[in-house]
């Protein structure tokens, strides 16, 4: 769980992760200069993906209180090795003091975290300016497949889907948001996720968009998965 009072918090975290990631690479000992150049070219073409979940949840809503707020510390502990989960509008005191409407709402890893509507709006507006996503005002989860980008102040979103958590709960797509996030974490850590990325890299952006949505839908009950596959519905859709 990563504090996110600005869009730049997401960018900075992903950029730091890109520097640490070595990914797959081609390396052979004692090769000539021609082979070295070939290896460099092959490595340059490798995409190193990061799966990112962005939570837009307002602790003033009953849904957030019931489904999300008390699980944020668990998400923080459980997700850190597999997926970045950003909680928009939430941050520790030092990061949140730039907003005049902060309120303490939860403890994460022993530290008090604060929430600000103004901070949430800031991140919403940044995402809306950079994608065709439009915030519904309800509790939503964006799932992003991010790949390296040359621009220091930007990230490249290879593809993305939005999940309206409130509608999904109504549709009985999950028993709880906690169970959905747990399934998403397991998917992020699986060979299935890595294989889907490799396949989409070969097939192009259309396959990438389908593979991410297919992966998320596969986590849902079969009846709901079939319902959501029939159309680009309101609850789970590509953006």
Written description of the protein model:
46% of the residues lie in helices and 21% in strands. With 239 residues, it is α+β, with helices and mostly antiparallel strands. It has one domain (2-27, 46-238). The strands form 2 sheets. A 6-stranded mixed β-sheet has the order 1-3-2-7-8-9, sandwiched between helices. α9 (191-203) runs antiparallel to α10 (205-217). The chain starts with a strand and ends with a strand. The relative contact order is 0.15.
Tell me, what's the shape? Answer: globular
Percent helix, as a range, is: 40-55%
Oligomeric nature of the chains: single chain
The termini sit apart by 23 Å
Average pLDDT level = 81
Radius of gyration: 19 Å
Give the helix tally. 11
Helix/sheet category:
alpha+beta
Written as H for each helix and E for each strand, in order along the chain, the element string is EHHEHHEEHEEHEEHHHHHE
Q: Give the tally of β-strands.
A: 9
Number of domains: 1
Assess the beta-strand content as a share of residues.
15-25%
